[in-house]
């Protein structure tokens, strides 16, 4: 089960009270949503959204087993958060949470190639039924220059050009369709001394591909803007990002909304996990939480 990060900090910022309405725009394992649902009680409501319908099906089963009735689960992208609220007759909410990116479900269980620790098909779509382009499509069809730009922009990969060249050479021999094959190409594509760093050489390439497949960086500002417009006065938006590219978007969004007088920033600097949380859940180490409240 995915361990919720910065849970105490999120609850401190939201301070949910009985009868309130919240949206968890990226519910996944539901750790944050359940804690909020407990506090808003049976007269309150949590809408839990996720773009991965397998996750929503599992969450429905789990909530039924546990008798949880005040979490309404929806398989939809947070780009459509306003439609989801409107369809439920909700015009304003007390808080919206975004916990961006992927989860341990994706790397450990989905079988969709989010990690290279297992050999899986290179897919990486959160929503295979609606999104067409897989990671394999990108790797095998994008021009070498576009691959290189993608690794540089979304992965901040310093050997982007070399890796893209190697991929272009390899795919002429054989279509690249598995995670291990791609990780192996990246490994051989970088200079030998760079292979022994803190993280596996393929980590940044996999991050870049996941962002590209799911158009993640374009989704974030769209989702945040839509969510801000749903907040009641005094309502709070909280966003957890896991890498600097996402965090920069969140920071710029909050600054711009603050300057326009729509939101007031609650976190001048991102809130980071305490050392005990990182010790207990290493995935939390890069988490950055920012929050703002509606004027
Ligand atoms: C880091 S996890 C959230 C973890 C969750 N807070 C918990 O406590 O278990 C991020 C989730 O966002 C989902 N996601 C990614 N892009 C999305 C989008 N555009 N709309 C809605 N959900 C999305 C992923 O499928 C994933 O389940």
Automatic annotation (TrEMBL):
Reaction catalyzed: cytidine(1402) in 16S rRNA + S-adenosyl-L-methionine = N(4)-methylcytidine(1402) in 16S rRNA + S-adenosyl-L-homocysteine + H(+)
Location in or out of the cell: Cytoplasm
Keywords carried by this UniProt record: Cytoplasm, Methyltransferase, rRNA processing, S-adenosyl-L-methionine, Transferase
Chief site of localization: cytoplasm
Name assigned to this protein: Ribosomal RNA small subunit methyltransferase H
Residues reported in the UniProt entry to bind S-adenosyl-L-methionine: 30-32, 50, 78, 99, 106
Enzyme class: transferase
The protein's role, per its UniProt record: Specifically methylates the N4 position of cytidine in position 1402 (C1402) of 16S rRNA.
One Gene Ontology CC term in the entry: cytoplasm
GO biological process, alphabetically ordered: rRNA base methylation
EC number(s) per entry: 2.1.1.199
Superkingdom in the source lineage: Bacteria
CDD domains: AdoMet_MTases
InterPro entries documented for this protein: RsmH, SAM-dep_MeTrfase_MraW_recog, SAM-dependent_MTases_sf
Family stated for the protein in its record: Belongs to the methyltransferase superfamily. RsmH family.
Lineage: Bacteria, Candidatus Sungiibacteriota
Biological source species: Candidatus Sungbacteria bacterium RIFCSPHIGHO2_02_FULL_53_17
UniProt cross-references to PANTHER family, sorted A to Z: 12S RRNA N4-METHYLCYTIDINE METHYLTRANSFERASE, S-ADENOSYL-METHYLTRANSFERASE MRAW
MF terms in GO: rRNA (cytosine-N4-)-methyltransferase activity
Pfam families associated with the record: Methyltransf_5
């Amino acid at each position: 089960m995915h361990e919720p990060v910065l849970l105490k900090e999120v609850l401190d910022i939201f301070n949910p009270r009985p009868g309130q309405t919240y949206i968890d725009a990226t519910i996944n394992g539901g750790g944050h949503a359940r804690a909020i649902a407990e506090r808003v009680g049976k007269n309150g409501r949590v809408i839990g959204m996720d773009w991965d319908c397998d996750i929503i099906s599992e969450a429905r089963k789990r909530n039924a087993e546990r008798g949880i009735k005040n979490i309404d689960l929806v398989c939809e992208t947070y780009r459509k958060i306003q439609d989801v609220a409107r369809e439920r007759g909700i015009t304003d909410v007390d808080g919206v949470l975004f916990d961006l990116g992927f989860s341990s479900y994706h790397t450990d269980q989905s079988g969709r190639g989010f990690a290279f620790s297992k050999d899986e098909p290179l897919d990486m779509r959160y929503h295979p039924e609606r999104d067409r382009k897989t990671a394999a499509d990108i790797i095998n069809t994008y021009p070498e220059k576009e691959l290189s730009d993608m690794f540089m922009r979304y992965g901040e990969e310093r050997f982007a050009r070399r890796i893209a060249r190697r991929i272009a050479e390899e795919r002429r021999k054989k279509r690249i369709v598995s995670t291990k094959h791609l990780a192996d190409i990246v490994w051989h594509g970088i200079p030998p001394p760079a292979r022994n760093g803190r993280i596996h050489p393929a980590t940044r390439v996999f991050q870049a591909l996941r962002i590209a497949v799911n158009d993640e960086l374009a989704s974030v500002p769209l989702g945040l803007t839509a969510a801000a417009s749903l907040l009641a006065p005094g309502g709070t938006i909280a966003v957890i990002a896991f890498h600097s590219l996402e965090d920069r978007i969140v920071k710029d969004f909050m600054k711009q909304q603050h300057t326009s007088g729509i939101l007031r920033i609650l976190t001048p600097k991102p809130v980071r996990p305490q050392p005990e949380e990182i010790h207990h859940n290493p995935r939390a180490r890069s988490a950055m939480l920012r929050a703002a409240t509606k004027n």
